[in-house]
Structures are given as C-alpha cells and as structure tokens.
Automatic annotation (TrEMBL):
Gene that this sequence comes from: ahcY
GO molecular function: adenosylhomocysteinase activity
Note on how the cofactor is bound: Binds 1 NAD(+) per subunit.
Species in which this protein is naturally found: Halovenus aranensis
Protein name: Adenosylhomocysteinase
Residues where substrate binds: D129, E154, K184, D188
HAMAP family named in the record: AdoHcyase
Xref: PANTHER family: ADENOSYLHOMOCYSTEINASE
Amino acid sequence: MTAPISEQLDTDELLESGQRKMEWARQHMPILDSLRESFEQNQPFAGERIGMAMHVEAKTAILAEVLAVGGAEVAITGCNPLSTHDDVSVALDAVDGVTSYAKRGVDDEEYYEAMEAVIDHEPTVTVDDGGDLVFAIHEDYPELIDTIVGGCEETTTGVHRLRAMDDDDALEYPMFAVNDTPMKRLFDNVHGTGESSLASIAMTTNLSWAGKTVVVAGYGDCGKGVAKKASGQNADVIVTEVEPRRALEAHMEGYDVMPMADAASEGDVFITTTGNRDVIVEDHFEAMSDGVLLANAGHFDVEVDLEALEANAVDTYEARDGVQAYEMADGRRLNVLAEGRLVNLATPVSMGHPVEVMDQSFGVQAVCAREIVQNSDEYGAGVHEVPDELDREVAEIKLEAEGIETDSLSDTQEEYMDSWQHGT
Ligand code: NAI
C-alpha cells in the first residue's frame, strides 16, 4: 500500500519550497480565502472524509486545505502521473487534517495504488478531475457507495465519463458537474487552458509563437482559448473540428478551418483539445514538416497516437527536458511535449492554470462539496448541474474581491423580464 508522501521522500527542502508555493497561491485566491473564513466558523465538513484525485500543485493544495479547515479529513492523490509537484504534495501532507499520496512520475501501478490509499480512508465525499476516483470506487469498492453522500467532478472528460455511467444506470451516487458551470468553464477551460498551455510550450521549448502556424484540434472551450491566445501572440491559427457549428464559429472568428489531413503539412505547432482519441495519427505524421511540436491539452494522453509515432520512428531521444524527438526514416524530427499528456500541467516547468482562474474553479468545487454535505437528501444518484445560486455566490465573492460593482435589476425591470405580456 502507498505510504503518505512524507514517508516516501526526504522532506526538509521540499517542505519549505512547497509551503512557499502554497503561500503564493493563497495570497491570490480571494474566493477560497472568503470560503475559508466561513468554513472555519461553520465547520460544514465536520465528520466528513473527503477523497480527492486532482492535479496536486499549489492551487489544489489550497482547496484541500480549505476543506480541511472546514472540518473534513482529506486524503488526496494525483489524477495524472506527471502533474504532481512533489514539494507541494509534501507541504500538503503536513497540513492538519490532510494526507497526500501524490507523487510525480509514478507508473500505472503506483498511480492506482495511491488511489486505493485514498479510498482506504473510506471517503464520504469524492472530488475528482477526470473521473478515475469515482470509477475505481464503483469498480472495486462498491461497498463504500452507501456511505458516500456525493461528489464533484472538475473537467469535461470526467463529466462525459459520468454522464456515460449515468446513461447506463451505473452511477450510484450524486455527482455535481462542476466543469459545466459558467464560473468554471468560461474561465478555466478558455483562459486557463489557453494561457497555461501556451506558456508551458514556450517555456519548455524556448521557441517563439510569432510567425508560427498553430493547428488547434477541437474548437470547444479549451480550443477557443488556445486559438485566441495563439492568435494574440501573432501566430497564424488553423482549427480542425468535427462539429459543424463549432467549425463555423472558428471560421467566423477568422481562423482557417480544414481537416487534420490538410493541416498536418501546414502546421509548426499542433495542440489537441478534443477530449477524444486518435486525433493526430500515422497519416498525419507522414505529412508533417521537420521540427514540428506536438502537444496535447485534452485530459488523457490518447489524442496523439504515440504508439504509431514510435513504431514509425528510426530513433527517439530527449531533445530537451519535457521534449521527446521522434526521428523519421527521411530525417524529419517530430517533437512530442510531456509524453502527450496535458501540456499545461505535465512538462517539467508546467504550473497549470493561473492562480486566479483556479480560485474560481475551486471556489465552485468548495461550495458544491458544502451543498452535497448539507443537502444530500435533495440529490439522487446521477449527474447534477450545479445550482445557479451557488455559481453566482462564487462570482459575487470574486467581484467584491476585485472591487467591481455591477448594476442590479429594478423591480420594474424584473417584472418586465419575467412577463410574456409585454410586447410592442
Ligand atoms: P468541449 O467538448 O467544449 O470541446 C471539445 C471539442 O473537440 C468539440 O467541439 C468537439 O466537436 C471537438 N472534437 C471532438 N473530436 C474531434 C476530432 N477528432 N477532431 C477535431 N475536433 C474534435 O471540451 P473542452 O471543455 O474544450 O475540453 C476538451 C478537453 O480538455 C477535455 O478532455 C477536458 O477534460 C480537457 N480540459 C483540459 C484542461 C487543461 O488544463 N488542459 C482544462 C479543462 C479541460
């Protein structure tokens, strides 16, 4: 069984560095700060055990800390083998009420063993990013389901998985689709993924965006962010899509839209954001130019077919930290970042989304965890939308912290907006 991180690593230096990262994040997370105050006072999670599988870096650590301050016993592990910051994991493990099992660079077996260590705490609430924890509980520990009041899911792919489970009547406790709220999706997926993916690629390669042709696969929330930010840094952007309205939207934004089969020979940098598999495959590799960069920002490492790339390569070697070069028989080198895993979280220099963005996403997570504990009777097994008033609560805290005031509806305006009788 996996031991807590502090028993696995020499912790002294790591602890200080992790605590510094957490302090920096804490200073820039006004929403979690405000919730911390109310949780500390009201202890909404007293007696609850919260199991978490998330990217264990500084912002996530603050969420775990705030849940623990609210009375929970928290056990956490990573949701990706490469996204954990070991120093943060150590610092988090030292927080009262939190045990962290997350470690960077684990193999598949260690990854699932750490998840089992979290499940061993017999969580009453689960907080997931990608659905691995919920899935493991349903597959291997169904006896725990009776005592689980519910949970929250962070990302698009996790919500897709949960909806698929729900459609098969296989999801046996309530889960909030945190991803789908405006306060999460419109900021985290769009701005967070856009900014942090481009920053990670630039820092990992030390190459410029200006003058490059960037191919963005998928024009959903993440793809929109990536395309906009790449364009803002003077790259030419090509979008590939399978959904006609999304393709049209990209076209009307001024991007070139074409199939990957055509984009393959045009691009200098390829960034996948589809949540799907086999988006860049063998035929595409054959058409690509020497030196292209291949990066994935979707949740799982299945968007670029690395097995086919490996099979076709005559040589592979580490070109830089976080960049693996695949040399083709004709001498072309195709460079894969972060082993095809989430590029904004999994290169050696990745830091994930900006702190302010994660404050919003995790603010929604925190109020959803509170809701599921306080009103569990109102939610049956299945996927639930986050109640709008909770999302608004988080937005209002943020506006207040930013010192931004807004107008509010007068009674007459409210009556007008609610009426079907007013016309010309
Ligand atoms: P979305 O559902 O809004 O967008 C995905 C788009 O990809 C859709 O428009 C879909 O039509 C398109 N697509 C699907 N298959 C395709 C194919 N073969 N070729 C071209 N386009 C295709 O999803 P969203 O929110 O943009 O998330 C995308 C992925 O990114 C998910 O796996 C999600 O979990 C992940 N994600 C990653 C984050 C990060 O930090 N890197 C943050 C948030 C989400």
